[in-house]
Prior knowledge:
Elements: H1 2-23, E1 32-38, H2 47-59, E2 62-68, H3 74-80, E3 86-90, E4 93-96, E5 99-107, H4 110-115, H5 117-121, E6 125-126, E7 131-134, H6 136-142, E8 153-157, H7 161-170, E9 175-179, H8 189-202, H9 207-219, E10 236-240
Parallel strand pairs: 1-2, 1-3, 3-8, 8-9
Antiparallel strand pairs: 4-5, 5-7, 6-7, 9-10
Amino acid sequence: MFKLxxxxxxxxxxxxxxxxxxxxxxxxxxxxxxxxMSSIDKTEPFGYYGSYIEEKLKSIGYTxxxxxxxxxxxxxxxxxxxxxxxxxWRTDSYSWAHRTYWYVxxxxxxxVLNSYSNDFxxxxxxxxxxxxxxxxxxxxxxxxxxxxSNVKLAILxxxxxxxxxxxxxxxxxxxxxxxxxxxxxxxxxxxxLAGQVVAxxxxxxxxxxxVWTTVSPYLSNIxxxxxxxxxxxxxxxYLGDGSLTLT
Length: 247
């Protein structure tokens, strides 16, 4: 009788261990590395949306590096992006001498001017804003067909990023989300769109479905719509492999 009780207890224990093992959440395997750059965060903070995107990427196993303002450097654009699977770059544009530049974030010190003197001489880089600005010709000159071959997805949140997106794609990035026209970072609208895209990708959507699901409510004039402009069309699309996923 005593042996029978022991056997019964052991059987129950085995069953319970099996049940808990089946239902216990498993640790999610690391998917890769993500880099989030906000080049003018002091004046146009990423804020809630940046934290939201970071949370969504971490939820599917990505390690996330956040770099703001002067921590975004020319050297990073030259050789650092290829170390990441996901690259998100958020900045603003300005014009100087009839050329369009995008703020890098790095302060234009004398060391920086000396280190990239050829690029400044060729107007690929600019220093007149006090922080370094980068022109489209910089990417055209320095990115080869394999410079960004390790980048699975890039999201470019700045005016005129469609032109830079083309250079990212030529350099090997599998998919690039970009803004198709001039945008403003002041009201967080583009940040919100980016957050929605990342959230859908975190749910397992592919790139095409994530972008389309984000922008289609605006295009079909069903909620949600911009309360200040019901004819608003989001300046947001992608190029590259629409079937790519992050999960």
